[in-house]
Every structure is written in structure tokens, then in C-alpha cells.
């Protein structure tokens, strides 16, 4: 769950106005939200604040019950381990195999190697990459890289899952599988926010939406 109250965000190098303006939005545990709006509306900026990669310029931000504006670094670092992020540009580590990329969140949690092997094998099979465990990201197609990024974001069963355009490199069948996975995770208690421009997907999977326009919240619910 998370709650933003009157949140504004101005990039340090902003040429135009604020990327987010007085946004207030709350999403409960286990809920799914689309994050919608035209290019430049502020979707990625909102996700960066929720992913604890950027600090709001003003307002109140509560992520998984922690008021993050006042939180110390150690608290933020631990909180991050409970968040999964699928980045628009994947952000895989090119010199680590697909297996090791996906294993990272579990290794950060110091989980036993035998358990890591089991979990990573299972999720990689689920995303259809059971035979590409040793491949380096540059050896994979865009869609394969996106599926590795998705596997890495969910492997540790995060309490909050944030995904920026997670279907843009996937075909329809893979996108459908991904939506099935998201819905299962939400049922298990993960709060999920998915930014997308994929109108067909939103029509196929109707859900509440957070809609932004030029940094302002124009619709919630
Ligand atoms: N690093 C940055 N420095 C300065 N301004 C930025 C930076 N990143 C984004 N912006 C600006 O912040 C505003 C919101 O951008 P953001 O990336 O959050 O939009 P978006 O809705 O995610 O767009 P898209 O759908 O194209 O990904 C835009 O006006 C953008 O130009």
C-alpha cells in the first residue's frame, strides 16, 4: 500500500514546470492500478517516487506504512527490498547472466543458494526462458530482456510492484500471461501499479486507474 498527499516533484534540471503537481492518491494492499496519461504526464516520475529513487519536492509520501520523506537511508534501503520494479528500459546488468540478474533480489536478502536456484528456475520457466538461463542480456531479444526484468521484479514476492510499460516488448500471448501473473500477485497481497500506453490491454483488463495529465491527477478510481 502507499499514500501520497499533495505531492509535487520538480527535477533538479527542470526546464519546464514541475513533473508532478499536488498529487494525492492512496492505494490499499493487494490492489491493482493502471497508471495512465500521455507522454510526459508524469507517470515515470510518480513511479520513481514510489520506488524510492526520487524524493518528492514537497508533500507526504507513505510507502508500505513508512513515511519516507523523513526516513533514514537504512530504512529506505530495507524498504526497497520489499519493492519490485520493471523499468521501461529494463536496466539489466549486461555482464551478469539472465539467471544472476533474476537472482539479485534474493541474494540481497541472503537467501540460501539452493533456494535461489529453485526459485529462479521456476520463475524463468514461467516466463518462458527456462532454456536461456546462461545468456547475457545483450544476447537476448527485447521481449526476452523484458521478461527477465519482470522475473527479477517479482522473484522476491514484493509487497509493492511497480511496472513502467511492462508489455511494450511482449506479444499478445505474453502480455496475457503477464496480466495473469499480476492478478495472482495482487490476490496474494501485492499492491501493483502498471504504467502503460497500451489502450487495448487496459480495455481487456479493466481496473481502477490513476490518470495524470501534465503532472496533475485528473482521475483516480
Ligand atoms: N531527468 C529529467 N530532468 C528534467 N525533466 C525531466 C526528467 N525526466 C522527465 N522530465 C520531465 O518531467 C515531466 C514528466 O516526465 P515523465 O517521464 O514522468 O512522463 P511519463 O508520463 O512517464 O512519459 P512517457 O509516457 O513518455 O514515459 C516531463 O515534462 C519530462 O520532460
Description:
The protein has 221 residues and is of the alpha/beta class. The protein has two domains: 2-82 and 158-220, 3-Layer(aba) Sandwich (Rossmann fold), CATH 3.40.50.300; 92-154, no CATH class. The chain contains seven helices and ten strands. The protein has helices at 43-50, 73-80, 98-108, 113-126, 142-154, 172-187, 199-204; strands at residues 2-9, 20-27, 32-36, 58-63, 66-67, 83-86, 160-164, 191-195, 209-213, 216-220. The strands form two sheets. The protein has a six-stranded mixed β-sheet, sandwiched between helices. The longest helix is centred in the C-terminal third of the chain and has 16 residues, at 172-187. The protein starts with a strand and ends with a strand. The model has no long low-confidence stretch (mean pLDDT 95). Adenosine-5'-triphosphate binds at residues 11, 13-14, 16, 19, 37, 39-45.
Amino acid at each position: 500500500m502507499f499514500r501520497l498527499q499533495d505531492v509535487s516533484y520538480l527535477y533538479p534540471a527542470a526546464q519546464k514546470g514541475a513533473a508532478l503537481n499536488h498529487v494525492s492518491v492512496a492505494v490499499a494492499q493487494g490492489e491493482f492500478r493502471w497508471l495512465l496519461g500521455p507522454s510526459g504526464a508524469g507517470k515515470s516520475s510518480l513511479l520513481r517516487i514510489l520506488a524510492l529513487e526520487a524524493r518528492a519536492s514537497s508533500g507526504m509520501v507513505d510507502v508500505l506504512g513508512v513515511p519516507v520523506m523523513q526516513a533514514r537511508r537504512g530504512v529506505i534501503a530495507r524498504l526497497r527490498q520489499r519493492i519490485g520494479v520493471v523499468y521501461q528500459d529494463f536496466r539489466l546488468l549486461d555482464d551478469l547472466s539472465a539467471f544472476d540478474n533474476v537472482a539479485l533480489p534474493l541474494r540481497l536478502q541472503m537467501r540460501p543458494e539452493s533456494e535461489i536456484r529453485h526459485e529462479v528456475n521456476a520463475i524463468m520457466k514461467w516466463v518462458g526462458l527456462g532454456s536461456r538461463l546462461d545468456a547475457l542480456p545483450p544476447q537476448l531479444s527485447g521481449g526476452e530482456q523484458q521478461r527477465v526484468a519482470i522475473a527479477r521484479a517479482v522473484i522476491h514476492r514484493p509487497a509493492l510492484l511497480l511496472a513502467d510499460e511492462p508489455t511494450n516488448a511482449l506479444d499478445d500471448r505474453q502480455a496475457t500471461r503477464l496480466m495473469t501473473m499480476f492478478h495472482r500477485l495482487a490476490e496474494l497481497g501485492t499492491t501493483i501499479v502498471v504504467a502503460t500506453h497500451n489502450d487495448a490491454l487496459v480495455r481487456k483488463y479493466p481496473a481502477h486507474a490513476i490518470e495524470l495529465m501534465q503532472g496533475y491527477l485528473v482521475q483516480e478510481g
